[in-house]
Amino acid sequence: MNKISLQKFRRPRLLIIGCGDVGMRMLPLLTPYFRVFAVTSQPARCAELRARGAQPLVANLDQPATLRRLRGLAHTVLHLAPPAAQGGQDVRTRHLTAILPERAQVVYVSTTGVYGDCGGARFDETRAVAPATARAQRRVDAEQMLRQWARHACGQLSILRVPGIYAADRLPLARLQAGTPALCAAEDVHTNHIHADDLARIVVAALFRARPQRIYHAVDDSAMKMGEYFDAVADAYGLARPPRLSRAELRQVVTPALLSFMSESRQLENRRLRRELGMRLRYPTVQAFLQQARTAA
């Protein structure tokens, strides 16, 4: 075995559960320091993961028997997998906690939706959760399950509550092109954002700097309402701004799922992110990203 191979196998093992877009952005930041194993439920993705330096493992959080080979594989785990689409509990996280080793370090990527509607209030991580949808309740259930595991297994848990993720390929361009309306200014809601590249860096920073059993808001400094966000993207890409309707009018023309995203207003503080994780965001605001995108074009 050559020197490079020895160095590879001496690196600590790290397991990524849910290696989607953000996980793929994390791989170049992780592979120099860890031997990375990435779980996928799609065998067709194995070649892609291997090409990025990860060892793919085919398993499915909905099928506990497929997870047995993961037991004790790594003591550092990044949990980015979303809950299933139905139910009030996150059964997938329950299946995962059953195979986590004692004293492991886990970073869980949750959602700011756990707070529900906060009437536009600005707050930090000490605010109590109040999930208003089944989707958010499943996230709260996952957080609670992981906290319970950390207490019983002496594990180190970090929870990142994440808002709307954007990037060059994750912008609402199709929505704008379709002319989907937004709320009128008087009824609009405050939203929070983070660029996918910055989120990848935040997850990695949490591995090295997070305090045990700590929650962090993985949000940028943008102070925008939802309609302002759509307007800014439309202006940057030369598209028409969306028409504005009242909530009553909007209810008649959009799906209930879409309307639910327009029913919660909150502004999250990110002081912990900066002070404890030492984060300096590449894209501190959506406007900063859009300005760079315009310059590059």
TrEMBL record:
<dbReference type="InterPro" id="IPR051783">
    <property type="entry name" value="NAD(P)-dependent_oxidoreduct"/>
</dbReference>
<dbReference type="InterPro" id="IPR029903">
    <property type="entry name" value="RmlD-like-bd"/>
</dbReference>
<protein>
    <submittedName>
        <fullName>Sugar nucleotide-binding protein</fullName>
    </submittedName>
</protein>
<feature type="domain" description="RCK N-terminal">
    <location>
        <begin position="15"/>
        <end position="70"/>
    </location>
</feature>
<dbReference type="InterPro" id="IPR003148">
    <property type="entry name" value="RCK_N"/>
</dbReference>
<feature type="domain" description="RmlD-like substrate binding">
    <location>
        <begin position="104"/>
        <end position="281"/>
    </location>
</feature>
<dbReference type="Pfam" id="PF02254">
    <property type="entry name" value="TrkA_N"/>
</dbReference>
<dbReference type="InterPro" id="IPR036291">
    <property type="entry name" value="NAD(P)-bd_dom_sf"/>
</dbReference>
<dbReference type="Pfam" id="PF04321">
    <property type="entry name" value="RmlD_sub_bind"/>
</dbReference>
